[in-house]
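Section 5.1 Outputs to date
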Amino acid sequence: MMIFGFMATPSVAEEAYSAPFWLPSGHLQTIYPAVFTAKQQVKYRRERWELDDGDFMDVDWIDNESNVVKTSDSESTPTVVLFHGLEGSSKSHYALALMANLQAKGWHGLVVHFRGCSGENNRLPRAYFAGDSADIEMALSRVKKTVGNAPVYAVGVSLGGNALLKWLGESGEHAAEIIQSAAAISAPTDLAACGEALDKGLNRLLYTPMFVNSMRPKAIEKARQFPGLLDEEKIKSARTIREFDTYVTAKLHGFKDADDYWAKNAAKPWLPYIKIPTLMLNAKNDPFIPAESLPDQSSVSDAVTLEVTEEGGHVGFISLPFPGNNNWLPQHIIHYFESLQLKSTLTGQTTDNQ
């Protein structure tokens, strides 16, 4: 990076990702950041959104003491909205890392909990799912109404990344009325390929039981709350992502089975229609997402920047020094948004001077 003719030392955010030597596999690069690295301390302010359909969503804001978001705030401080992954929350390691880095920078930030993910099951005979673009639109529109003219950026992680990308493609130019740009991290845009991958080999031993066992109690509660909606015995017997998505996710949201759900909610077919600057960051050694299922430049619009690293795992991207930290990913995301801000400012200045 050149600054006034001198070569500047690149920040962590600008450096290409390189995994620590002590984490030589995608599995280790996925598990270690989530389980073994120290989580940043973030103080959230919870807000409950009552929805028009009678349900609710809980969102967790970060606020600096002198930096509280106010209705119709016309200041230029950006707000970053995070949509978490499958069974994630504001307590997920990537959420805490991003919010801590945003707070240190003086930006606003919030984590939108998908329905049923904030610690309390939602009210309606539905849950959340990988292609719920209507809830993405609702959440971002609500944030935009709150912050007024200030920039809004959206980040989707894993399942949340697929939902965000699908909304971006469906919305086209309309998305620019709500947000300036977006980033999708480890997004499984080919849901069928990823569902199959999670149900095979070591993945089925390491990750699938964790996800299914987390989702099962909420599904059983839903089955008892709405008799006849779901088959409780099938929920109890589910051992794979395919089975759970067939018995629960598809049933709750009007799809025939897991295959129908995966096909109709994958973001990949929508990527050519994205109209606002969007970063897609994936690692080739992500154990959840087969590398051959990742989109290439010919299958996305010119507004999409594809960044595919050799290493990083699934939402891993742990940083040096030992024993590691979770700062590379949030700083990389923020750097992407800042570079777009700078480009927009310089373009505006050039236009003004002509």
